[in-house]
Amino acid sequence: MIPYHYILNAWYVAGFSDEFGTNELKGHKICEKPIVTWRTEQGNVVAFDNRCRHKRMPLSEGRIMPDGTLECAYHGLCYNSSGRCVAVPAHPNGNIPSQLQLSAYPIREQDGLVWIWPGDPEKAEEVTPHPTPELSSSTWESIHSEPMEVRANYLLLIENLMDITHFYPLHDGNIGDIGNSRIPIQLEEGQAHGTNYVKTTRETSNYRQPPFLEDWFVYDVVDREHTHCMTSPGLTRVEMRVAPPGRIKEKDAVRGYTLFHAHTPIDDRHHLWRWAVNCKADHMSKGDPDVSATKRVAQMFPTVVAQDLWALEKQQEMFDFDDEGYFEVFLKPDKALRRIRQLFSRAQQQEQVALQQKRGAKLRLKSVN
Ligand code: FES
Ligand SMILES: [Fe+2]
């Protein structure tokens, strides 16, 4: 049994900006919705239902014509960048029915990311995608992944990211630092950019960094702030700031990274995971002063990600069994996870109720007619 579904009314990452070439059609499945996107000659990304209004052919299988319209691969209906059908080859002189209009999805491009809102379009205005300035600033170096399909509900990834107590044993041999897991958590939650966030902070002083952190961030003993923040259902931000003891408030002494993890549901058992590693552009590693800190972190990242991915898919497989007599136990360091699950179930319940009310209203309308 899968207790989790997904939240529809949220901004989700459809891709890094560089995934959207001009006039390149891309087919997506986000929250079980088929979506087609392309970047127009004018530079903006547009998003529509991927089903041709004629006979459901996926429009992402079509092509962009020299005049900028999208030509369906089946019977050649052409749609402009507002989703309006502007040509029907089989009857070039006939009227084009007004129903030949594609449903549009709210879409925003911001700080190097393209975001889509798969839920109720009216609610999209109330929320802003979380800022990610490190991805597009020249003072930061940013390296990002390709999109990776994970055979697991996206909440399992969010929980994984918010929980560093799995670093040992899952990441033993690379980032498996058990000392880190034992630092107590401060939990914070609130609202920012129109959405709920949950954040944990681990602060420590005079901490001897394990060799991999010393390699990335130069210092051997540090004061450290380590935060993990589920900024929204679509994005988790991780920040590590280290400085020699007593100097964490000195901007120039601080080293560290910002990580972004975008988790976009495909359906309730699959999601796309994208990550980005960001360090200050002029920070070089200790292990090789010719190689930047960002590159050193990004070298290790795929191994760590592969270990997480393995665990997430194994966890997901266990949801196929009946829960009869089984329940999960939350431990003390799991308090952020418990809070996130509560937020998710509340949001999903609210969406279910709203959906049922909408369906009920439609049914009533039908019976009146
Ligand atoms: S299905 Fe697209 S034109 Fe017929
Ligand atoms: Fe991990």
For the record, what is the CATH homologous superfamily label of the largest domain?
A: Naphthalene 1,2-dioxygenase Alpha Subunit, Chain A, domain 1
Distinct ligands, ions and cofactors found in the model:
FE2/S2 (inorganic) cluster, fe (ii) ion
CATH fold-level topology of the largest domain: Naphthalene 1,2-dioxygenase Alpha Subunit, Chain A, domain 1
> What is the annotated CATH architecture of the largest domain?
Alpha-Beta Complex
Number of strands: 18
State the low-pLDDT regions, or none: none
CATH class of the largest domain: Alpha Beta
Instruction: Supply Rg.
Output: 23 Å
Number of domains: 2
**Residue-averaged pLDDT, rounded?**
95
How much of the polypeptide forms β-strand, as a percent range?
Answer: 25-35%
Q: Report the major sheet.
A: 8 strands, antiparallel
Short description:
The chain has helices at residues 121-124, 154-161, 167-170, 178-181, 211-217, 293-318, 335-368, and strands at 12-16, 26-30, 33-39, 45-49, 63-64, 70-71, 78-79, 85-87, 107-110, 113-116, 140-144, 148-150, 186-192, 195-208, 221-232, 235-243, 255-267, 270-280.
Task: Outline the secondary-structure elements.
Elements: E1 12-16, E2 26-30, E3 33-39, E4 45-49, E5 63-64, E6 70-71, E7 78-79, E8 85-87, E9 107-110, E10 113-116, H1 121-124, E11 140-144, E12 148-150, H2 154-161, H3 167-170, H4 178-181, E13 186-192, E14 195-208, H5 211-217, E15 221-232, E16 235-243, E17 255-267, E18 270-280, H6 293-318, H7 335-368
The structure holds FE2/S2 (inorganic) cluster and fe (ii) ion.
